[in-house]
Design a protein that fits this description.
homodimer; 270 residues; alpha+beta; two-stranded antiparallel sheet; DNA-binding; globular; 10 helices
DNA sequence: CATTTAGTTCCAAATAGTGGAACATGGTTT
DNA sequence: AAACCATGTTCCACTATTTGGAACTAAATG
């Protein structure tokens, strides 16, 4: 489960993930059980991270939880390196046209990270949706994104899926997933036909640069009660167009002051 | 500026802060200039952090920015260690009653961290507000929180303010601030009388546990055009009551699963 | 009161981080 | 075209930091 070394920093990040994974404040002993680190080592990590505000410690209950400094940093991350600020106006349009729930997602270590959302019915909920993660192999956005990964990254991503059977229709093998990805590449959009949650269907399109670098995906979701697949697929051209617009915009987009020239291609942010 | 050592992890966090401080994607050389680290050292930090998804690297533009992994972690932080999930319903009520902008803030290394917001006019904006930081010495929530810090923390906090003069009314010295904090402690609420932005006034109350531990603050904000101070101060009892309710709720609050297997857990450590 | 469990501290050995300097690359000037 | 410069990347001997077994303390349990 641990991502692999990267020295002290990698280990510290692992600890952060581990704390976050509990989805509730955790005690030292609980972490120790689920951890590969020896007691003293884990202890020191928790101390240091708490000290840094990356974790918070509740002295009354003696529990650790992800800290507020992360919220501060994430604000910067969301603003700067997510597609959200660029995509916002387009999502607004799409959600109004369709009247459906719209998601904007990016890939984060082979998982789907929801970055923004429009919910036709209610006003937007804050972090309750942005920052949430989900499986890639059984969601529209996840499959749409995977289909456009380069070979190496794809192989890695495909092998890291859990293939847990959420519903009868969930794809539960690498082979089945790869077949679907081929199909997606052919037609240019992905479908989630109740593969994650029964009664929930969606169509999704990848967001690509002109050089076909995959940046993210958007989807329109509905419940089967309100609409069947043919009706939902009618939205595809719209979704695709919006995805293309976002992709194009992302390409031209620079931060106000930043207008440097393009460089060459080397390191890849995974 | 740097928080002080804490070994490798501390340094890595400093680098994260540094990248975030630019508020835009930043190149290696720019970071190097504003950094105390030697070239090779900084370089390795950036590599490792990028590798870990704590930073993202744009190969086309050769820039670094805070990474998406932070967003994922912050989601957990917001859900678990902020007051936001507890306070949400109360904020809803307060904003509807007053029809004004309502903020929920917590203290993060002597700065104000906005954790949630209600804006009467428009629907909530996502991270655009939550995660944002502001000065403590010249905002209602900031002063309300500082007034209820223990002596040591207060001394540290007071000494770490910038005392930049934003407006004519900004408190620009430790002495002036301390005097105002005394006043706040006396009457139980804080005022921001155009100290941060001209034309913007607010009243704020601290959120305290029964043991007087300070958890955060809430405020109601208005522009002077629409309302003068006497009118705004009329909201104080309401604001205070909501702050008290949140404080009380925070005390009893446990995470869903935690409640069930809580048999062996003392409820109050006092 | 003895006993278990949870959390904290210590320190010698081992490892991982450090940073000066040399190298690579691509763009610009002479 | 050669010399130059700015930016980014790699190397490696030196050293500071991390490591983790074990001993210790504090508090809960029977």
């Amino acid at each position: 489960m641990p991502v692999a070394g990267d020295g002290t920093i990698g280990k510290a990040c692992d600890v952060l993930d581990q704390v976050a994974a509990f989805e509730r404040p955790v005690r030292f002993a609980e972490l120790l059980d689920s951890s590969d680190f020896p007691k003293a080592t884990l202890y020191r990590f928790l101390q240091t991270l708490t000290n840094q505000g990356m974790l918070s410690y509740d002295p009354e209950r003696q529990t650790y939880a992800p800290g507020m400094r992360l919220v501060r940093l994430a604000h910067a991350a969301w603003t700067q390196s997510s597609l959200a600020p660029i995509a916002r106006p387009f999502l607004d349009v799409l959600s109004q046209e369709t009247g459906e729930t719209v998601h904007l997602a990016q890939l984060d270590s082979s998982q789907v990270l929801y970055v923004d959302k429009r919910n036709a019915a209610q006003p937007i909920e804050m972090y309750s949706q942005a920052g949430k993660v989900g499986p890639a192999y059984c969601t529209g956005v996840g499959k749409a994104m995977m289909a456009y990964l380069d070979d190496d990254t794809l192989t890695k991503a495909v092998s890291q899926q859990s293939y847990h059977r959420f519903t009868e229709k969930t794809l539960t093998s690498e082979a089945a997933l790869r077949a679907d990805l081929d199909l997606i590449r052919q037609r240019g959009y992905a479908i989630d036909d109740e593969e994650h949650e029964p009664g929930i269907i969606c169509v999704a399109c990848p967001i690509l640069t002109s050089g076909n670098r995959m940046l993210g995906a958007i989807s329109v979701t509905r419940s089967t009660e309100r609409m069947d697949f043919n009706q939902l697929e009618a939205w595809v051209p719209r979704v695709r167009r919006v995805a293309e617009q976002i992709g194009a915009e992302a390409q031209t987009w620079r931060f106000p002051e930043l207008r440097t020239k393009l460089g060459n291609d080397r390191m890849q942010a995974t």
